[in-house]
Every structure is written in structure tokens, then in C-alpha cells.
């Protein structure tokens, strides 16, 4: 019985270590903020939802709890109208990057934190299951049509060229400067009560980082005097797959890594992750050795008493 209990304990401990170290799902953060909106009755001006939710549920929460359906759907009464609804879809930020000092882009995290805390209304979703089958921009369009079944009240929808959407009627812009020019032109032609939906997808290019794109676009909207609400969400699945393929092709070309332009060196984050994984594997090995020793000791049957030798 003792051996069976130790064996079951060993199995549970080993499974918990493996699940904690290797089988944890990848989650991404999402931030919703606005300097011009106010929270409704019974809602907090600044709230954090710690539940792990799907990307589809996130889009639904943006339209309901974030109030986007109030000004993006024409059939609903608009109490707090905004001129522009900005959506930033990143490609690299993970949930662990928000709280860890080993994050991939500290400047991006600081920028989002400053925008989030300085707004009148803000919602944070730290744990969003990264979409794998459908991209975030497609889920956003689907959520818009579902939230506004009768008539979409968005007067103008603009996506960047890096966003993969199949709707051919949507206008697409090529770079950050074209977005600025578009916002400036819409300021003169936009009618009162109309709301524009502007979606910018990061493409991982070196020309503009995610932090620069967010800062410049938000500054452009603020300087124009337009009221806005903004959503940032990370969708790293497709971009990460592309980077993995690019790195694999670069490493496969012997002697041509420098010409490909992809660095294959292990940086500080890479070293930290490799050391962490190595420590977990070594810990599992030592744990199994310890449990095996305990099982062997429990299996030793020592006599409880010895017979007294008889005198001859």
C-alpha cells in the first residue's frame, strides 16, 4: 500500500511539473481605452478581466462592455459619440511580456501602459487565447456584423494593406503617412455623429515599430481634435509562423545566413528561455530519481525481531 501511494504521488507531481512547464497555452493581451468615453452605470472606469477568453469573446466584449455597438450600429442610440475607433493589431506581444522584465519590446509595453492609465475609460484583457484558425481582423469584421445585424453605422472603414480581409469593398492604405492623411481629410468631410473605423495591422517591418505606429497615429488623432477610442490586441500566430519559416530557411542555406539578413544568434531572451527549459528537464530527472529511491526504500522488508540462538 505504501509503494502504491508513493507511485501515485510521483505520477501526479511529474504530470503537474510537465503541465506547468511545457503545456501552458500561449495567451496574448488586449487593451481598450478612450480619453473621451465614460463608464456606464455599475461599471468601473478602469477594469481588468483576468479570465482566459477566446479572441471571438474578446470582440464581443469590446462591442458590449466597451460600448462600441453604441456608436458603430446605426439602429442604437448614441449617448457618447466618438469620431474614430482605432484598432491596432500587433504581432509579437504575449501576456508574459506585460508583467515580465524579459519582454520583447519594453517601450511598447510602457506606451500602452501610459495610454491605458491616462484615459477616462479603460478595459484590460491580459489573457486572450491567440487565434490560430482565423485572423483577428477577420474576427473583428464578423463581430461588427453580428453586433449590428440590421445596419452597420460606420461611415468609413479603412484597413492597412497588411491586414488580410476578403471584403473587396473595404478601403486599404499602404503606410502610416497615408493613415495620417486619411484622418486629416476625414476631419473635414466627416458629418456630425459619424464614426470611422480604422484598423492598422503590424507587419513586423523595420520601418516603423509597433510603438512608433501607435504613438504617431494617436498623436495625429489628438492633434486633429477628434474624439477617439482605441483597441490594441496581439495576434502573433501568423507572424510567428512566418518568422519561424524564415529562420529555418536561413539556417538551411549553408554559408548564406548573412545574405538572407536574418540573425540566428541567441539573445538574452533566448538564453533565459533555454536555461529555464533546461532547469525544468533536469528537475524532472532528479525528481524521478528521488521518487525511485523512496520506492526502493519502502520495498525493503526488514525483520521486526530476531530469534535468540539456542545454547548447544
TrEMBL record:
Q: Where is this protein chiefly located?
A: membrane
Q: What is the topology of this protein in the membrane according to its UniProt annotation?
A: Single-pass membrane protein
Record lineage:
Eukaryota, Viridiplantae, Streptophyta, Embryophyta, Tracheophyta
* Transmembrane feature ranges: 280-300
Q: Name one Pfam family in it.
A: Ac45-VOA1_TM
Q: Could you tell me which residue ranges the V-type proton ATPase subunit S1/VOA1 transmembrane domain spans?
A: 276-307
**Entry-linked InterPro entries:** VAS1/VOA1_TM
Gene Ontology cellular-component terms listed: membrane
Q: Does the keyword Signal apply?
A: yes
Q: Which organism is it from?
A: Brassica oleracea var. oleracea
Q: Report the locations given in the UniProt record.
A: Membrane
Signal peptide location: 1-23
Which keywords describe this protein according to UniProt? Membrane, Signal, Transmembrane, Transmembrane helix
> Which PANTHER family does the protein's record reference?
2-C-METHYL-D-ERYTHRITOL 4-PHOSPHATE CYTIDYLYLTRANSFERASE
Work out whether the entry's keyword set contains Transmembrane helix: yes
User: Under what name is this protein listed?
Assistant: V-type proton ATPase subunit S1/VOA1 transmembrane domain-containing protein
